[in-house]
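Hello again, I could really use a second opinion on something today. Take your time with it, there's no hurry, and the full record follows here:

___
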Amino acid sequence: MLKNLALRVLVALQSIESKVKDEEGQTLAEYGLIMAVIAVAVVAAAAVAFRQAIIDAFTGATDCLSGSC
């Protein structure tokens, strides 16, 4: 009877430990996803903010390639 109780407690503790370890990986994945969304937002904001400069740079590059630079 005591061995059975000890075994059940041990199994319960191992189950709790495995759930805690699994959540650490999940949290890391969530932080990675948040960072990816922030990075995409920063790139999109930079593209909008520097839109004209990017257009001018590409226009200048195509002009140089066509020989009028």
